Amino acid sequence: MISTAIGAAAVLVAAVAVAASSVVSPAYGAAGVTLDDRVAHAHWRYRDSGKVLSNRVNVQDGVMMRGEWERRLKATNPRLVMRKVDVVALKVRQTLQVIVARNKARRQSRIKLDAFRRNAAKVKAFCAAMPRVAILHVHPSGTRDLKTIKEMLTELNPLVNGSLIIEEANDGVLTTLYPNEVTALAALPVQRYSKFGAAGKRVIEELFFLPRKPETHSFTRFEALFTIGDLLLEQDESKDVYVEEKTFLDFAKRAVRLGLSYVEFTKVEIPPTRKALNRFGELKALIKKETGMTANFVFAFVRTIEPTSLNRGWARDLVNLTTTAEENSLRGIDLLANEVGTPALEKAQGIYMPVAAARQAGETRLKSTMHAGELGDPRNVRDAMIMGAERIGHGVLLREDPVAIEFARRTKVGIVCSLVSNRLLRVQANYRTHPFLRFLRLGIPVSLSTDDEGMFRTDIANECEVAVSNTDVQYSEMVALSRNAVLESFAGSTTKARLLATLAQELKAFEASFKRTG
Ligand SMILES: [Zn+2]
Fold first, then answer.
1. Signal sequence span per UniProt (predicted)?
2. ipTM of this model?
3. Of 3.30.930.10, 3.40.47.10, 3.20.20.140, 3.40.1190.10, which CATH number belongs to 116-142+238-517?
């Protein structure tokens, strides 16, 4: 199995080398222009266009339209245009580099995953024990597992009104339910959770998770989960604090059991208020006290909010509100929700450019991450990076753009991948071809996370199992994924150093014990 793979790789290396040389040499040699010259010019266009965008938004209080944006990103020197043949050559070169990196990773790995990646029990044992300390892409309300949901429903005893759920969670625009679900909900008696029998309770509990059938879902079916959660868990305002704190603490306790000691939560708290920002600090202290976990927050804007000018105003408010005290727990901004029809340039410029300018002026330390390249316009990752995002949530569609991939490599923009999420929401058809490993092998600091782990019935150990059993990821690459989660976090330097030291220590012990027990 392994020797065949290596043999196939060697043939591919040779074939790619021939293809690369025949494509590259004549095209560049004569003109004295290399592929790297063209890529560098394209990246210079990124930076130059970014400056124009910053000026447009922050100085002129204007808007950059798509037509002008794409024109500005084009090469200004005709000799340095990225032609189709150049794009192909760049892709070929990257594929070659991926193969070289994979072989190097295999040689450097102290544990040989190839020896047991087809053995589910061994993979499970490996992933349960694999050291990891940080997780960076977590939506609190998506974390609740069945145990948490049952306990909350028992405590809150909400009124279950099927017709209301249909009305709110099946609006046909942002949210949808399947026809059989609508029928089942319509047939439910309107009564409190405690009045249902065991089977009825089970039906209500399942409403908090993506259905097991069909296997994958539209983003609107996924979004319905959040509406249902709000409808059933937020009926009694006096219990809001209970729901919030139990959500965070139950997640943190599970995460600690999986070895994690640092988490970054993406939380929607619009519009930003002093009280909401203070709450981040309170939650951070509570989580630390109860579980030992260090938690930080990123303030999430919602890309589907209309008009877009609302987000623009809130971004300014957020920068003005955030003081050094709040920056202790609030580390950055994010942009989330359905990416279809809500492209990054149009939806993010009014948020990200003011925050980037404030950061440059030393007025804030808020960093930027963005959900991009999950669905919708494949140019979103490129535009997110140009707008100053230091880290990308998902980033899958970056695979379409080798020039933007080069930019991510060279500027070390982190990508946080959530494998189960991407498959369930039809971002990536199968795990085997998920680009996280290609990105990692090209030197992009990739890490793994769980996104909405409760709703997707996953956790960080399961993401590891998915990676190991479906791809040829090597042990040294699993180590890199764990390290990148620390390096790409928005934690302060002291926390990062502490986490890296812990991770190094755990890796040493893990490798020693794994060698002994196999
Ligand atoms: Zn997410």
1. 1-20
2. 1.00
3. 3.20.20.140
